[in-house]
Amino acid sequence: MNPELGAEEDKKMATRPVDKDSVDNAAPSAVLTDLTAMSDLTSAEAEGLLELAALVKARPADFRTALAGKQIVLFFEKPSFRTRLTFESGIYSLGGHAMFVDQLTSRIGEREPISDMAHNLERWVDALVLRTFEHSTVTELAKFSSIPVINALSDYEHPCQALADFLTLREHFGDLRKVRLAYVGDGNNVAHSLMLSAALFGAHIVVGTPKGFEPSAAVLAAAREIALETGATIEVVNDPVEAVKGADAVYTDVWASMGQEAEIAERARIFAGFKVTPELFANAAPGAVFMHCLPAHRGEEVEAAVIDSSASVVFDQAENRLHIQKAILLQLLGGGARRFPTRSFNV
C-alpha cells in the first residue's frame, strides 16, 4: 500500500477501468535501448519504470497482449529461481514467448564469438535477457546486437533487483527522496546497483562493509556525480552500526556470491561483525524494514529473528521483481520497433 494514497485510494486504483490510450501511452518512448546497468537510465527514466511497474501491478489484465508476437530469449550462466521464473512469467503474462538457454556448463562466447552470436540472435528474436558472470558479456552483446539486452545479473551489477527494491521502498515509504537505506555486507553487484539507484531517485544510502570489501571506486564516483543533480547522498563506511543508525531500511546480501565458494570460510570470519542481528537492526529508525535480495542464509548474514520478523519485506521485493521486469520489457519492446536496421554479418 502507498502510504500517501491510503487503503481506499489504493483499492480504487486497482479496480479503476483504464482508458486504452493510457495503456498505449504507458509504453514509453524508444529512448532506452538496453538495460545493461543502472547507468543506462536517467532519473526520469528510472522514475518512469517505477510508475509503469505500479500500473502493471495494479491492472495486469490491461497489458496481457502488449508483447504479442515478441520472442525473448534468456541466457543464464548461473543457477536461478526468482530471476528465471519472474522473467518467464512476466513475458507470458504480457503475451510474449520466452525461450530459456542453459549456459551453466559453457559460458557465452566460448563456442563462438559474442559478435557472431549477437548477429544471429538479432535475426531470430526480439530481446535478450542475460544472467552472466562477466559484465563484459552483457555489454558486448548490447554493442553488437540491434535488439534490446537486459542485464538480469552480472558480477558488476544487478539492475533489475535494485529497481524492484526501490519499487518496494516506494510502496512502503512513499517519497524516495526521504528514504534512508542502509546496506551492510559485501560491496558487490547488488550494492553497486543500489548505490546508483539511490542516486537516480534522490534517496540516501549508507553502505557499510569491512575494510577491503568496499564497493567499486568507479561506481561510488558515478553515484556521487548523479547525486549532485538529484540531491541524493551516498556514503561508504566500515562500521555496521554507523551504517544502520537511523535507517528506514536495512539491506544485506550473502557474503560470498556465486563463483566465490572457495572464499566462504574466510569471508565468514571477516564479515561476522556485519551480520544483521536484532541488536544491529535496533539501531535503525522506528518502523524500519529489513531487505534481502534472496536467497538468504539464516545464521550467516542475517539472523532468522530479523528476516522472519514482521519488519521483513523480502517477499515484497521478490514479488516486485515480476512487476519491474514487466515494466522494463514494455519500456524496451512496447513500441514494437528495433533501434537499428538489422546489421549484416560483416559489420
Task: Characterise this structure.
The structure is a single chain. By secondary structure, the protein is of the alpha/beta class. It has 2 domains: 6-157 and 321-333, Aspartate/ornithine carbamoyltransferase (Rossmann fold), CATH 3.40.50.1370; 161-319, Aspartate/ornithine carbamoyltransferase (Rossmann fold). It is built from 14 helices and 9 strands. The protein has helices at residues 6-15, 20-26, 43-58, 82-93, 114-124, 135-144, 159-173, 189-201, 217-230, 240-244, 264-270, 278-281, 304-307, 314-333, and strands spanning 71-76, 97-102, 127-131, 149-153, 180-184, 204-208, 233-237, 249-252, 289-292. Strand 6, helix 9 and strand 7 form a beta-alpha-beta unit. The longest helix is centred in the C-terminal third of the chain and has 20 residues, at 314-333. It is globular, with a radius of gyration of 20 Å. The model is unreliable at 1-30 and 336-347 (pLDDT under 50).
Main features:
Rossmann fold; 2 domains; 347 residues; disordered N terminus; alpha/beta
Low-confidence stretches: 1-30, 336-347
Q: Tell me the span between the first and last alpha carbons.
A: 50 Å
Q: What count of domains describes the coordinates? A: 2
Mean pLDDT: 90
Strand order of the largest sheet: 7-6-5-8-9
- State the CATH architecture of the largest domain: 3-Layer(aba) Sandwich
DSSP strand (E) fraction?
Answer: 5-15%
CATH superfamily of the largest domain: Aspartate/ornithine carbamoyltransferase
Order of helical and strand elements: HHHEHEHEHEHEHEHEHEHHEHH
**Broad structural category:** alpha/beta
CATH topology of the largest domain: Rossmann fold
